[in-house]
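Q: May I have one protein plus its fold?
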Amino acid sequence: MAGETEESVFATVDLPYIPPEFRENRGEIEAARNGLLPDLVQLSDLHGDLHCHTRATDGHGRLKEMVEAARHQGLKYLAITEHSKRITMVHGLYSQRLLEQIEEIDPLNDRLREHTEGFRVLKGIEVDILEDGGLDLPDPILERLDLVIGAVHSKLHLSRAQQTRRILKAMDHRHFSILAHPTGRLIDEREPYDIDMVRVIRHARDRACLPELNAHPERLDLTEIHCQMAR
């Protein structure tokens, strides 16, 4: 039956080609048979990156290097979202250091407007969600940013009710934009913390904030099931 390509195998059984990413035994054969397979996201579909660190914390490139790399990839915007002060092991930014970065980004955007077509650097932070649901930088700093990513990096073993309540409260903050790596898992290294993902996604919808799809190969978080739930 098989031919030289995977496509020919599917054709032999009168099915459209099903890309490997869909082969999860979750109805993809029926979807293919009925012409209802969704489109896979391609690199060309991406317009920007909303979660990046420079060498100011735990990244590897300087701000200008990051911008040039993003432009080279054909992106239209790049958000610089360093860790905040609580993550001391990666030299998280205190208010003053964050203000200095803001003051570096503003003139950089001015120069980009003069010499490029539409590329923009967004000012952001990956702020720590504290155990009580607070954020570890003050409002007068957060209100100067384009986006605020909230992340859980500590107290990962709280009960499901406590962890969910903590995250929902953080999402209620008026400057909260994105929930980073929403289950905190590290593949083959750390299990996800226990949260009620249905409540979190519904709350994100009601609050008009977003759960992150983090494509770092150690995270892949949200999972594909959660992505479908969010959709």
User: Anything to note?
Assistant: The domain at 43-230 is CATH 3.20.20.140 (TIM Barrel). The longest helix spans residues 95-115.
